[in-house]
Design goal:
Length: 278
Amino acid sequence: MWTPEEYRDHLASIAAALGPGRPGRTWRSLQDTTFAPLLRGGGGDWTDWKRDSDYYDEGDLLWLEVDTIIRRVTHNRKSIDDFCRIFYGGPNRGPEVRPYTLDELVGTLTQVAAFDWSKFFSERLTSTSPEAPVGGVEASGWKVVYTDQESATARAASAGADPGAGPPIDAAYSLGLILRGDGRVQQSIWDGPAFRAGIIPGMQVVAVDGRRFTREVFDAALRATEESSDPIQLLVLSDDYYKTCTIDYHGGPRYPHLVRIEGKPDLLSEIIKARSTP
């Protein structure tokens, strides 16, 4: 249902959201996000620090890496498809609940490809690295880069997100800030430039460098940071009080994309090809 480009954009957005967009990875492991669902309550504020149901998105990266390992170890004779046929196969007895254990998962993977899968999952599930697990992306011949252009997939995804205020303004990987179309702060990435300037969710940006806030004014000010040594001045409304916040940032817009790694085979394109019906 996705084009290859859309899927690559999806992987890039996950890697970025789990890397610089999730400083909470430094204190809370992926495994812990399944044990403490109460932290996901209370609205979306500070999701970057407390984490969310990241096992879904991070699982995309982990299982891509599993596929690349299987292909490498078996010299491309097997893939994750072989694991799925065994693990999810068997007689069709209709709908049933079939719980499984980590040992069963590791046993099936070992049956497909000899590898230390126990160590692999232990390291990935308990890691508190600030970096997203992009081993599978890179092993498949691609890498995450940041440019000043938002992907078409990201623009389309946000187009209808908030009909009342318009699409959000995504400056997560530059200023560490995501705004509603009306300037209200949705996210201020923990310890990012905006956070250090005193901006938090719930505030509303009403002026940028002395000009009334609009999407166009904000975008122009952000682009100007690439060549200017001046900080961005945001006038924000917090409850009934106005405050000027100075953001010392000079990198321009930054949006994630996947690009090819020169000299590496494009394994990802092979992995995401449509399967034929047997």
